[in-house]
Structures are given as C-alpha cells and as structure tokens.
Amino acid sequence: MSTKHEKILRYIESLPVGDKISVRQIAKEMSVSEGTAYRAIKEAENRRLVSSIERVGTIRIEKKKKENIERLTFAEIVNIIDGQVIGGKNGLHKTLTKFVIGAMQLNDMMRYTEAGSLLIVGNRFKAHENALHAGAAVLITGGFDTTDENKALADALSLPIITTSYDTFTVATMINRAIYDQLIKKDILFIEDIYVPISETKVLRNTQTLADFQHENERTTHGAFPVVTAKNKLVGMITVKDIIGRPDDEAIEKVMTKNPISGSMKMSVASAGHQMIWEGIDLLPVVDDDNVLQGVISRQDVLKALQLAQRQPQQGETIDDIVKNEVKVLNNEEELQVEFKVTPQMTNQFGAISYGAFTTLLAEAGTFALKRRKRGDAVAENMTIYFIKPVQMESILTVKPVILDMSRKFVKMDFEVYHDTILVGKAMMTFQLLER
Q1: Coil, helix or strand for 114?
Q2: What CATH topology corresponds to 192-307?
Q3: Reported pTM
Q4: How many angstroms separate the Cα of 381 from the Cα of each of 200, 297, 378, 413, 433?
Q5: Which residues form a coiled coil (predicted)?
Q6: CA 377 to CA 189: how far, in whole Å?
Q7: Which H or E element spans position 56?
Q8: 31-55 burial, b if ≥16 CB within 10 A, otherwise e?
Q9: What is the pLDDT of residues 410-421, one digit of tens each?
Q10: Domain ranges, ordered by start, for the chain
C-alpha cells in the first residue's frame, strides 16, 4: 500500500506542466496535513518535478531526462539570477534552447533570436516586442522595466519577461555557470541510475520462517534478502551467515539484522560503494523518506557502474578532471613515476598548488600503481601528508608511489613528490580494494 507521501508525489506528477500548486491546495486536495504536503512538495522539487519562484509560487515543470539535464527552464533562470517575472508567468515551465545577448543592432539581433531562446538585453522596448513575436522569452538587465503592451503580449503568448538588477555580462556568466554545473551533475551516477526495482527484487516478510529463506536461497542462489513488512517497510536484512545452526521453523525477524544500512535514490554510486566495502555488505537496500523499500543494489552493480563511468567522455570538468588531464605516466620498468604540470586552475590564493589538487594528484598516482600490479579498482580510505613545500604554477612535478604493504582488502602506499631534484612533498595513503 502506498504512503501519503508517495500518493502526493504521484498526484503532483499527474498535474499538467505549468500548473501552480501550493501547500494549502495539496493539503486540501489530498486530505493531509500542511506539514505532510510541504515535505512532499520539497521532495518534488528535489526530483525536479516543480520549481519554486519568489513572487510567483511553485510551478509544475517538465521532468528532465538525464541526457537533457543541461537545458534549463525559465523558472530555473529566475532563481539563478534572482530575477522578477513581470509578464508571461504561465510560460515559466518552458525549457530554453539557447540564450542570445542583444549587444547589436535590432535587425542583426533578430537574426539570432528564435523560438525557445532567451534574449538578454537592456531597456530596448522594440527588441522586447520583436523577440516575443519570434517566440523567445526576454531577460531585461540593469533593473529596467518594459511597456504595458509588451507585458500583455507576453501574457498572451505565455512567454516570460524577466527583469534583474544585474548587468548583461554578469547574467550571462551566471547562466553559463549554471549550465556548466548541470553538465557536471549529468556525469555523476546515482543509485537511481543503477538500482534493481522492488518489482524485480525478491524480498522476505518479517512473518516468514527460515524455511522460506532456505527455499528462496536454493531457488535464486542469492545469499541475502531484504526483510519487509506487509506495507514494504524495510525492517531488516537476512543472510546465509544469520541462519547457521538455527531451526527451519524459527521466525525470520528473530535472526535478521535489524535497522540495516540502506541508501537513497539520490545517494551517489561512489558513496554507496564505499559504504558497502567499509561495512562489509554485498547488498544495499534502497529506501524512500518513509523507509519503504524501493529496490536494491549489489556490489557487482556498483563495480560495473564505476567502470562504465570511467570510460565516459567528460563534458563538465571538475578540479579532479583537470588534475587527471595533466597526469602522465613515465615509462620506467624499475619503478612507477608520474609526471604532472601545475596549471593556474590548481593553485591557491598565493599562486602555489592547492591542497586539494595535491591530494588528487597523489590519489591518481596511487591508482596507476595499483593498476600496474593488476589490483583493479580501489577507494582512497585515508591520507597523511607529513611534508609539503609551496609549488608554483607551471612547475613540473614527479611523483614516485611505493607500495609498502598489500593484503586482500587493503593497500598502504608511500609517496615522494619532486620538483626537479628537490623533494617537495611526502605522504602516506591507504586504499580499500574493490573486489567482485
């Protein structure tokens, strides 16, 4: 049976794109408290089903697929630039295809302005009018207004006119940064991207016995199962180890692990993998805010996802990507050496290599050393930097990782970092090995 939270989310998802919703309206429509309605609307906002805008309200927007996440809605633009909608509020749910900066003559400006675009311009009323007729929204910079006729036209065409106090250059930079951030988010894998839904997952009820577990274990060869109530609330996990020496007629709830570790849909795959290794579990249940089971992920699922992510082209570069692009493995059969160039993006306010870039460099060098020993994927567990000198930008560094100790699950590694022949850094790092 669905919870009130799930019913509200399904109701919101069923609303037409562009509809306005409110806490009071949802509470009345679904016969729930305003607190429950508020929490559900916040969850809908996290799932990108609605967008809340100051002075306008909360609007149902089209949920974007991951491959199109870099495309922003006009509602999101309002939030990014702290703008005010002065016309065409009914069109805020629409997605913009591109933005055009109106720093040219009117006729030339219109050559670039088309349906679905956003014209960024100052107090040029004729440009506002022409853009609306072309099917484009308008963003007025400098805090200027437009004519009442243009506002009426925007309302009639459901094309937003937005005004902001920022100048054109600042606005373009803010929107560009938002699109860039979305590109980075698109490359991050979440549990929702790889989980096996509950409809395809075998679960056991807390009222069943160990004989039921034995039967399902023989049928599926799975060594672990989530334990749920009649309403699919997660109450435990049971594995083969739990039933050793127990009679078949004993209740599952007496031997299961209660309050098991679980993940959420928005948890990153990297975090889930690290938690599974640290806790020594092979199956992670996935639950919603009400602890209702949504599905599961296995350690095998995590490994496949991480390996696939490493082969994907990166469109939005993080500092980790920038560091990795500058790493080069030197051909040396006796010992592994990694060469690295310090670029301006990797420096702190003093012009020396930042602590974050330095630690990323060491982690990457350690990964190369493990791959050379054919030990596969690993997760950095801890790092101790006990010597570091300021290294200026444009410097070429050489990193020498040395494996001190290696077991089936852990690797301890020492690092020496040189600039020419001068020692500029020493560190020790422990990795956890990702095993199938």
Answers
A1: coil
A2: CBS-domain (3.10.580)
A3: 0.51
A4: 33, 22, 9, 11, 10
A5: none
A6: 16
A7: none
A8: ebeeebbbbbbebbeeeebbbebee
A9: 899 999 999 989
A10: 4-187, 192-307, 319-433
